Structures are given as C-alpha cells and as structure tokens.
Amino acid sequence: MSNQASHLTITVDKSHILTLGERLYEQSIELIRELVNNAYDADATRVEVTVSGNEIVVSDNGEGMDMEGLEQYFNVGSDEKLLHPVSPRFGRDRIGQFGIGKFASLAAASRFEITTQKGNFAARVVFDKARWLEEGDSWVIPLTCLQPNPNRGDGTTVRLVDLKRVFKPDDVTQRIAEGVPIRAGNFSVYVNRYRVAPRRWSGNRIPVMEGTKYGIIHGEIVILPAYRASKENMGIEIKVKGVTVRREFFDMASWGKAATRIRGEVHADFLPLTSDRSGFIEDSPEYKTFLKGSERIIVEVRRAYNQLASERDNRRVSRALKEALQRIHQALSLNPELSPFGVVPFSEKGRQGAGETAVEVGTGKEEPEQIQEEEEIPSDSDQQDATTAAGDEKPQKKPKPSLRIATPNAVVKRLKFGDAGVTCCLDHLGGDGPECMTEGTIIYINRDHPLYKRESKKREAHILNIARLITQEISLMKDPANPREAYNRQSKLLRDAFMKRDD
User: Fold this and answer.
1) What is the CATH number of domain 14-195?
2) How many alpha carbons fall within 13 Å on the CB side of residue 151?
C-alpha cells in the first residue's frame, strides 16, 4: 500500500440543514419565540408581532444588519453570540448560541423574507425552501439591496409566508410570555397591537435566593389562595437568561392537591442547555448543584405552605369552637342544675351581673384575650370583698391547672361560668391519641382523631362534634352516680344548646 497522502472532502447535504431546522424544535410555535429573542439580542426596545391566517410578521427596532451582519446571520452554527455574549447597547446577556434557530421557521413556513436596515444599508433576503433545494449544489440565496428609509430607522422585519398551520394569537402571546425576557428593561413585545405582559400570581410570595459555586439561584415562588388552585400551568418555571426552559415539579408531585397551589419562577443563568433550549444537560455538575439547591428551596416552600394551611385551619377551628362554647353557655344558663360550676347570678337588663359567663379566646402562641360584648361591672358584694382585701395581706389565689400545649398551632378558648369555668384546648395529639380528655378544668380535644377529622369537613357537623365532646366532659365533672346519668345530662345540654334562640 502506498504511503502517499490523500484528502477527503467534507460535505453537508442541504436537506440535512433543513431537517435540522425543522426537527430542532418540537413545536413550530417556537419559531416565533426565536425571532423575538433575536430582536432582544439585537438591542431592540420594541417588537411587533402580527399573526394572521396565512402569514406571521415580526418587526423590531434593533440595531439591524449590514452586509457583514447578513452573512453572519446565515452562517449555520455561527459562534458569534458565544464570542460576544453581551449586547453592545444595553448590555443584555444574549440568548442565542448556535446560529440555527432561524431555520426553525421552516417547521411552519416554506418561505421567509428578511428586510433589514442599518445606517445607510438596507436589503431584503428571500429564503424559499423549494427553490433552494432545486438549485442543487448552489448555496446562494437572492439578496436585493434597497434604498434606506430614514422614517423606518434601524431594525429588522421577518415575514413568514405560506404557513403550514394556523397560529392562534393567544397561544403566541402565552409562548412569548414564557419564552422571552419580557421583564427586561427597555423591552416590550406586542402581539396584534396588544402588549404582552408578564404573568403575575396573587398569593403568599416566597423570595428565592440560593448561592452556589456556579452562580445564584433567585426568583419568587407563590402559594396561591385555595380558591385559585388549578391544574393548569402547574410547577415552577426554570428560567435561563429570562427565558423559561421548562417547568419543574421537584418532589411536589407527592403533595397531592397542595401542588395545584404552587406557582413561580426561579432563574439560574449558569445552567447549560440542550441545543434546542428545551432542556438542561442533566449530567453536568451545574445541573446537579442546581438540584441540591432546589431541594433546600422546596423544603422552605413546604414549610411556608404548612404554616399557611395551619393558620387558615386554626381560624376555621377557632370560629367553630367559639360558637360551640356560646351554645353550651346557653344550655348551662337554661339548666343551672347541670352546671358543675354553680349557679350564675344575672343582672338586670342593660347591666352585666357579677361573674356572668363569657368566652375567652387564645392560641398556643399568645396569652388569652378576653372577648366580651360588654364591659364586666362588679357587683356590690365584689366591691365589699375588694375593700376587705385592701389590707396588709392580699388574699391567696387558688392555683390554676397548668395548660399543656403539644404544638404551637393549638387553639385555646375559655368558657367562664360565674367565677369558675373550663378551658378548652384543641390540639394535635396524634391519630392514636384519645378523642378528648380532661385534666382539672382543662378539656383537651384531639384534632388528629379520625372521627374529629371526618366531622370537621363540614361546618355544622364540626360545631356539633366539638359541643358533643365538651358537654361530655362537663357532664362527667358533676360526679354522676352512673354512666346513664352522665349521658342524660349531656343529652339535655346538647338539646338546649342547639335549639333555636327564640325558643
């Protein structure tokens, strides 16, 4: 065999370039995103997108292109934006990387026209797929120089004709809102003359700021109100250079309905992307670091969600407990012989009697706050007792039983009946814990008990169940002779607690 050197010629088939452009993007609507992002990279401040039945026009007021710029534009796989990643005028981080996004237009149109102007140069280039293929080995495309239009100014207009499918303006608007950095300063996009606005979620906002050795993960996650929960657009948008690459659920898929309330976006500009910018290079160290940082973020989101859910549930439980206690007070007033606290003296109309009942409310996080409709006015006997006690020695107060609160989300209210009463504490005591129990004058109700959880789903059943448990414990406080007597007391108290007020 001869050692004489020989050469091989590397060629690229035209059909391969077209196929690459058509198949690079799974959805042909991505081409509009690409054209708008090209305008962003060119320091445009305004982009007009016009969508009609048979054509799409994208026009911008960016820096435009001269002859050298056009040659660079049609240089397949150009590394121009990699070599110059920051735009000259606004210092924007350029989005384009590979120089083949322009051929995504062929996924939806058989021909596109580019009209551009930069300073004293203006030209129109027409790329017709069928004609280009017919010309065989020729790689040239027609270019027509134009007279510069001073009224138009610098910028570029891309016109897609002979569309292969129909594009809906609403779909185009949504894709631009996700795939274009429309929050950037000095940049606005209009679709059929309506400005594209960034999506804003209402709810509890959680700022995100997580540092890594590759860069910062930042953004905002929102917990929607329960009535705004939806399965549409679920997940957190992961953005690179202001563009949504994809939505992630992380471990929120196991949250059940709670996941339908989580929205938001996080930015991680250091993440390496696939060629079509539809995903990440998942075996890269940057992406693995991002996942670790995201785990800490999701833990914080879950904690915030649980806190909001607890606060909302506590408000609901507090209202139910207050109404149950008010009804029990009504029943005890009608049946003073069933009260383990003794008879309560009532005042004349317009004045509150000494030691008359009231409902006090508190939570495990704060001291109880007394809630009364009228200011308590002491009786004459109370005033005499106060005068007698105004000596050198103060009267000794009876020690009150200490309230044991298992969790910070406990709901506590006190029912005063005369000078005595009971404290009701609704707390999480575990699914295997007792349904309720009494220590001294403190009644504990277990919010984790299966029966409580079932009855708490509906308001009326919730109130009735709480009243049932409290009257049960109150009936046992009066030392019944037998279980039947305690049951009869409870039955009468419940009957009178839920009878109509005017009866």
Assistant:
1) 3.30.565.10
2) 0
